[in-house]
């Protein structure tokens, strides 16, 4: 965080962010914690050989993409134009995706699934195709499968980009405690993008969440968020949990990145378990942006890794909630 002296916290609910199509396009770069990500800096867990194998597969993809492997007449197997990283939370998929982005030359884009759907929504389908066409690489982190309409929309977009020569890389999450669901997730992905399935190389990455690997950590709840945030440095905010949820309902998730722009730490008072799934899903999208920007969270009340009730964790959006839990643990780990 910033080294400046503590200041009076702002309120997120007072921020009304706006975001144009051009600004959305400019935001399509790796999160700042991955600005230096390389394949060499990825640290495979030796207990899970698939992690080392994934690094080797990504090197092969980069080499093939740089040499025009798709059209190569060599006897060595041609590199497919798409690669899909299938695995659980905290196994380094985003690191590998960012490392790939850094190694590729030319115009390239890196964003989450929701950022690409928001771009299409803001400028229209045909203009979005024209904006992205000609890119050497398009990376999609956290490819979502729970909205068939959006999934088909992005699949159609990717088909047009691949046809024009763009390479595609994507990730999606598998709950670490869901036996056999990793392969099922890959099959889901390929079935939903059936027009692209033959063009994607699926790389399975097993392992433990690195954010919990050594400690089995939990999210930290402070005794008084207002007092705690007062000790934080840089630009800070303080809101009640319920007021923040109400505000998020009036801001499109694509604008959450602007909502937290320039903020070093957020304080939340009165955190409690979710009773409404719509609120929970909006909060997940908000947490994703906090994590991308590495914004610390000081929260009192219910610990943030306990806000999703069992029925939500067992439901159709379990992957999103479990990803959020992992990230909330990371963002609160230094706020005790």
TrEMBL record:
Tagged with keyword RNA-binding: no
Keywords: ATP-binding, Cell cycle, Cell division, Nucleotide-binding
GO biological process per UniProt: cell division
SUPFAM superfamilies: P-loop containing nucleoside triphosphate hydrolases (SSF52540)
UniProt xrefs under InterPro entries: ATPase_AFG1-like (IPR005654), P-loop_NTPase (IPR027417)
TM spans (from-to): none
Annotated Pfam families: AFG1_ATPase
One of the record's GO cellular component terms: cytoplasm
GO molecular function ontology, one term from the record: ATP hydrolysis activity
Name of the protein this chain belongs to: Cell division protein ZapE
Organism listed in the record: Salinibacterium amurskyense
